[in-house]
Amino acid sequence: MNFQYESNRVFLSENEQVIAQVDFSFVDENTVNIHRTFVSEQLRGQGVASAIVEATVNYLKEKNLKIICDCPYVKKWFTKHDEYHQWIKK
Q1: Stretches in the chain below the pLDDT threshold 50
Q2: Rounded to two decimals, what is the model's pTM?
Q3: Side-by-side strand order, sheet with 31-39
Q4: 39: closest CA among 21, 51, 17, 14?
Q5: How many Å apart are CA 66 and CA 49, to the nearest integer?
């Protein structure tokens, strides 16, 4: 998947429409809060949400940012991916 990266989101678009997206905002200079995950209906059940969350976490990890999760999907995703727990701000 060809995700696009911006300062406050990671997204996937098709025909100039966003079809999957993870939104986050800075809490401070070292921490972001992931507050929303969206996947269009036509892509649900295909692993797109997991893929875009993983891409987002890797993007934030590369920037050496810690993560807070308000998004229920991302909270659940982290419970299944122990290898990323070090990036959760405690």
Answers
A1: none
A2: 0.92
A3: 4-6, 9-14, 17-28, 31-39, 66-69
A4: 21
A5: 20
